[in-house]
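U., I forgot to send this yesterday:
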Amino acid sequence: MKRVFIALALLSAAVSGCAGGRATAHRAGPAGRQAPSTAVPSAGADWVTYHRDAARSGTAAQVPPVGRPAVAWRARLDGAVYGQPLVIGDTVIAATEGDTVYALDRRTGGVRWKRNLGTPVPLSALPCGNIDPLGITGTPVYDPSSRRVFVVAETTGFHHVLAGLAVADGTVQVSRDIPAPDGQPRVDQQRAALALAHGRVYVAFGGLDGDCGPYVGSVVGVPATGKGPLVSYRVPTSREAGIWASGGPAVGQDGTLYVSVGNGAATSGAFDSSDSVTALGPDLRVRAVFAPRTWAADNAADLDLGSLAPAVLPGGRILIAGKRGTAYLLHAPALGGVGAQITEAPVCEAYGGPAHVGTIVYLPCMHGGTAAVDTRGDKIRVLWRGSAEAPGSPVVAGGAVWVLDWNSGRLYALNQATGKVIHKVDIGETPHFASPTLWGTLVLVGTMEGVVALSGA
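Result:
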């Protein structure tokens, strides 16, 4: 992961915030007001996890054809919002690098409640990195059965704490420290989105920007009740192999969890399960692994698959791409081992989380714009490349592909059939790998200062 983060370090160094800071909402019209919470269990249109559902489709339900978006409100919070905001009924949930979780009124951006979970870690206390301070980075997940939203906060002392908060009022109902499976919490970063399945919250770990320290990628499963034993998986390599892609674990229809793994220590000899797509069972035991034949060279040159979360497609197929620019179509859940892809094709260097509709996958390309890739017939065929140079992770609704250019702070709506720009809106500085949230005609984006909402989409 070090190559892209070094290139973007100056952007992220601007992040700042403090726990307990003020929270204000700024609307395009009248000022937002405090409102009582009327949170309800998750509905079909709600956005309850990264890219809306457990398969990370990134496709919104019940959305009309795209219109012309305009800023509806801005909520200035106590730090940057790296994870996707969630929408649960009429409540927007946003988590900040200030280690604070906010519930915002969906219509006005007014703060309903906020809950600080501790003091985030300043960059000066870390051996490397590019987020300052380091608090809540991974996208939260909502559990409709308990009406709790789960986040992982990094707090002073290098603790990673899973908190389950009642959406109605922010009460902390679950709090559980997550021991680092590699024994190196100081250099473990929790960037990947949380996943909810099998009665557990799954939390993946990678390293800090710069890959300093002896970290090893891992996943931990925590009972959603907060009680009972943890389960965990640690990549069997001596160093690195982070599970850090912002999309986090994707869950197949049979309940298998799929994670992409970064470059590991081995550059020759025996394969060490790095540079891979790894399939894990509910207990996080390995079910299957795929790696390119080029895994050793990928590890040596930092050209691994770990930069992009897997796209779990119908018909037992997975599409993955990474830093080398090659896309691989895989069998699932039997991934087959090294070099067992159905087919491969050059597409683009991809980072973050893809979106997918049926057999078509929308890849977040670092250069050249979003790529729409059709996998019908077990082939990889590029349908179009987006006309906007926007490397963010795309989402799809209303005939449009929504994607951010974090370099310019601009949000684009691309024609879903052609990739041509329909609309563009300047929204301000956003974290890299940011991805919009869609609800009805609303588009929500986490920024370096909080959340911005656009209406009329």
